[in-house]
Write a structure and sequence with these properties.
The structure is a single chain. The protein is mainly beta. The protein has a single domain, classed as Beta Barrel (OB fold (Dihydrolipoamide Acetyltransferase, E2P)), CATH 2.40.50.100. The chain is built from no helices and 8 strands. The strands form 2 sheets. The protein has a 4-stranded antiparallel beta sheet, with no helix packed on it. Strands 2-7-8-4 form a 4-stranded mixed beta sheet, with no helix packed on it. Strand 5 and strand 6 form a beta hairpin. The protein is elongated.
């Protein structure tokens, strides 16, 4: 008869580092071209004039200027409108 215990699954393997998401430059701050304004998962905030959005939905400044936030209505795929925050550099 063997005396080796059954190898069960471990339960304490969920210690992952955070993704450091969120707003990096706030309204009224001056930014340079290429600076990261927002890191996000999915397009929760919309890129406005003076900004561009990269493959992982990070919003960057496309020019030097001042960051502004505003509320817009965006039409969804179903035709329903939803309120979103638009990030702009003016």
């Amino acid at each position: 008869m063997s005396h080796v215990k059954a190898g069960g699954s471990s339960k304490n393997n969920r210690n992952n580092a955070g993704q450091r998401l969120g707003v990096k430059r706030f309204g009224g701050q001056t930014v340079n071209t290429g600076e990261v304004l927002i890191r996000q998962t999915g397009s929760t905030k919309v890129a406005g004039p003076g900004t561009f959005i990269s493959r992982n939905f990070t919003i960057h400044a496309a020019k030097d200027g001042i960051v502004t936030f505003s509320k817009i209505k965006k039409t969804r795929f179903t035709g329903k409108t939803a309120q979103r925050t638009q990030v702009s550099v003016i």
